[in-house]
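Q: I have 380 residues here and want to know how they pack in 3D. Can you give me a structure?
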Amino acid sequence: MAWLEFTIETTPQSIDSAVTALSARGFSDLVIEDQSEFETFLEENRAYWDYIDEGLQKKLQGLSRIKLYLEDTDDNGRKRLDAAVKELGLTMTAAPLPETNWEESWKDNYPPQEIGDRIVVLPYWLAEESTDRLKVILDPGLTFGTGAHPSTQMVMEVMENVVKPGFHCLDLGSGSGILSIAALRLGAETAVGIDIDPKAEDIARENAAYNGFAAPAFTALTGNVTEDTALMDTLAANRYDLVLVNIVADVIIGLAPVLPHFLNESSTLICSGILDTRLSDVLDALTAAGLTPVTLPEELQKTVMSIIYDEIKKGETGSREKFGEIDAYLRSVGCDCAILGCTELSVYRTLHSLPPFYIDAMEILAEQAILRCGKQLRNV
């Protein structure tokens, strides 16, 4: 079956009346692309966004149009549409769509994703694929958490160095349950996933089942721990070895006062999804809550900058002695891993073959760029 895509150009002022007129004439399943609608959506959901892709904003700038689809043999529908567009005084273009098996083609967007040294994220239809890695099997696309986002991947890489057999984990803002499932795959005894979206609870439970996990190993709950005191008290009755918060800065800041209730003296808290411009805000909130984020002292931060600007950028290999001071400090304060956040430190990691303790954020971004282009990763 072949289809035609019709694009009707409107204005922000006329798009609502055009949609109403087309619907009244029997045209349904209209796709609306409008800058003002997009901006309204962002404003109404401001708490969940820290960053909007500049390319997406540019693509929608000044845009106001309606799209709909008809079978190429639907001559009557085409005539009715032409008449409606003419009556509305609008312009329309038509283009054929390539014949595609839409029920299957969307799966091409979810290839296997190898993360860190031990984990591979697989869509459920590839669950039987042979691999030496720990499988995290998901039904992708239903809620946030497919493993494609760099913040999720960095958390999972850190977890490879943190999770120990018998751990009890709490995943705040669990979405698809991907991090809880990864924790269980890595040897945790239990994982509790909590999200404010009721749909996420069911989806996380279904994804856990794909991996062979159910209560009591995995528990999915719905609620807001900052507002539901009964829920917070229930969770606080059990202190957790690992607490995961992969959301956005403002949500982490809002959660900061209650996080100590879920931690013991030896717990690890992993926060992710934070823009570099919001890092200080998050650190201030965590500190005010009585938590102690690990950051380099000023002198060691100067050492990092010296390695970057005085050595690597000038074509040198970088001082092992200087980096050794940084490494010794990180390990002395109990860090389970460290994330390298700039290109020059990625170069240093390659030149000196740093151990898995160091996670390369640039490598994760590069891998995602390759995968999003539909290409396969290969080891060289």
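Q: Anything worth noting?
A: The mean pLDDT is 89. The longest strand covers residues 263-272.
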